Amino acid sequence: xxxxxxxxxxxxxxxxxxxxxxxxxxxxxxxxxxxxxxxxxxxxxxxxxxxxxxxxxxxxxxxxxxxxxxxxxxxxxxxxxxxxxxxxxxxxxxxxxxxxxxxxxxxxxxxxxxxxxxxxxxxxxxxxxxxxxxxxxxxxxxxxxxxxxxxxxxxxxxxxxxxxxxxxxxxxxxxxxxxxxxxxxxxxxxxxxxxxxxxxxxxxxxxxxxxxxxxxxxxxxxxxxxxxxxxxxxxxxxxxxxxxxxxxxxxxxxxxxxxxxxxxxxxxxxxxxxxxxxxxxxxxxxxxx
Length: 289
What we know:
Mean pLDDT: 91
Strand order of the largest sheet: 10-9-8-7-6-3-12-11
Structural class: alpha/beta
Shape: globular
Oligomer: single chain
């Protein structure tokens, strides 16, 4: 049975995001090296805003309410990217999408400068894998007035999958996220602007990921919307042996399982298939109620 979220909606700049039904966030990477789609939106070695608009429009037409634009690869083993390079990848795309697609534009970044510039160009949400821990990030996020997703990650992208260890992964993720919520509130970011992400695949083994998913309702019990990203993750490859581009069925199954355990937002690469599956779940829950 799905867990009922306490919050019914979230103000994202000039758009209202409703949580009356599960929300799909479509992934739009402007990187040359992301694990499943790096370089897909490049022309002549540079990000192509028109290609990004076409891709984003297709995801919105398929059912995405949020488009998450990222310019830094955070795959395991990824090397850091300069702030300027990240901004060069992301800002032209945000500017092209804002006002052109019927969706909230989220920016997947930990960089304070990019947060501020993206907000000025029309972004409606911030998605930070480092949970606003970079110097100046709390203040920058606060000043944008946008909602922010705080994610748990053990280590950094370059090292996070080198033998991650926990006493109890659920307890430790909860403790970390509660601390980041408290830090955000202390910096002047109201609780009603926050979402939480347990960070599947970010410093977690297969066993850690499965335990987190099994107990996802505990995180949902915090009363903040949960954003979950399991699409095409290495967890699927480890359990099925499937290559990254053969993981659609398992990705959809994991999105459904996450929603049933309390996720409000699922971050996915394959929007249409996920939307169809969620429609079936909604139809069933209507009968059951």
